Amino acid sequence: MYTSGHLFSGGWGDGRGFMNAGYAPRFGANHNPAAVATARANVPGLYVREAAIQTIDMRTLPYADVLVGSPICREATPAGGNSKAR
Q1: Residue 34's pLDDT band (boundaries 50, 70, 90)?
Q2: pTM for the complete prediction?
């Protein structure tokens, strides 16, 4: 079984997809406290680090066969984080 690590893990949506595909999650990282809490609630026992990604020393993260770097979506939207169409 392959393992996965998730940067910008959010509430664990992409992580769930990897789990459904047979990957075993090793860790998640996100800067948002609510996202970290959600990821922990969705995968009990998962190592999740609350930190801005640029501050993490990648050598301190658990090894994973695949490193997933989902792009941030809310902060990068053309609507400035507003998910409702104008």
Answers
A1: very high
A2: 0.78
